[in-house]
Amino acid sequence: MDTLTAKSEATFATIIDAALDMAAAEGIGKLSLGELAKRTGISKSGVFSRVGSLETLQAAVLDEYDRRFAQEVFLPALQQPRGLPRLIALVNTWSQRACNEGLNNACLYSAGAFEFDDQHGPLRDRLQQGVLAWRAALRKTILQAMELGHLRPDTDAGQLVYEIYSLIVGLMHDTRFLRDEQARRHMQRAFSRLISTYKSFNDLE
Predict the structure, then answer these.
(1) Angle 82-66-111 (CA atoms, 0-180°, nearest 5)?
(2) Which of 57, 83, 152, 197 has the fewest beta carbons under 10 Å from its own?
(3) Where do the HTH tetR-type domain residues begin and end (predicted)?
(4) Burial tier of 75 (Cβ tally within 10 Å: 0-12, 13-18, 19+)
(5) What gap in Å lies between CA 94 and CA 92, rounded to an integer?
(6) What is the pLDDT of residue 205?
(7) What is the Cα–Cα distance from 90 to 77, expressed in whole angstroms?
(8) What value, to the nearest 5°, has the Cα angle with vertex 196 and ends 193 and 197?
(9) pLDDT by residue (tens digit) across 180-191?
(10) Do 126 and 59 touch, CB atoms closer than 8 A?
């Protein structure tokens, strides 16, 4: 990699880092190339030359958010055996991240879902795509648990995805908005009770 390319990539990373912080604090819909130029000390034309349009910037921010989320939540869970152990690990790492304080752990998708739920356009579509990808990964893990006999064969995977995702959203609400220090404990107890109703008789301890 030549020096010019390395410098360009470093500048791009600086812009995306600043944009992520801004989106976490104010909402992804509040991103602007001009404000990013002020925050990074890069000219507006310099920001534009590296990220292009505002829509391209928003997509790049969500792509980077997805990458970090996968690294912190999904990849650690994949180290666990397939089936119920992996599902439990996935929910644990996800809930742990949701409870960590700081802008870096703010959920752009949850905030964006409320901000753009009644709107139309590429950003809403991209937000929806991200949420559906998360839920698809959750569904895949549930189906593996069913195939391995850890969950009942009559388990409605779509229903269980909905219930788990609702617990996560509720956890983020109570943690970040209500500042409830007991939120994760409540969520974990609810998840344990929920999953016990789906466990296969052959897998009951």
Answers:
(1) 115
(2) 197
(3) 9-69
(4) exposed
(5) 5
(6) 47
(7) 5
(8) 95
(9) 999 999 999 999
(10) yes
Q: Which two tokens stand for residue 18?
A: 């600043």
Which pLDDT band, with edges at 50, 70 and 90, does 3 fall under?
Answer: low
Whose structure tokens read 């943690």?
175
Q: What are phi and psi of 151, to 5 degrees?
A: -115, 155
Q: How far is CA 202 from CA 87, 139, 151, 154, 155, in A?
A: 17, 21, 9, 14, 14
Q: How far is CA 185 from the centre of its chain?
A: 20
pTM score: 0.87
Residue 98's φ and ψ, nearest 5 degrees, are: -65, -25
Residue 199, beta-bridge partner list: 151
Residue 136 token pair: 């698809």
Q: How far is CA 172 from the centre of its chain?
A: 11
CB atoms within 10 A of CB 77: 19
Locate all alpha helices (DSSP H) within the chain, ordered by sequence: 3-26, 33-40, 44-51, 54-69, 75-78, 84-99, 108-116, 122-147, 157-172, 183-196
Report residue 54 as tokens.
């505002």
Is-contact 71 104, C-beta < 8 A? no
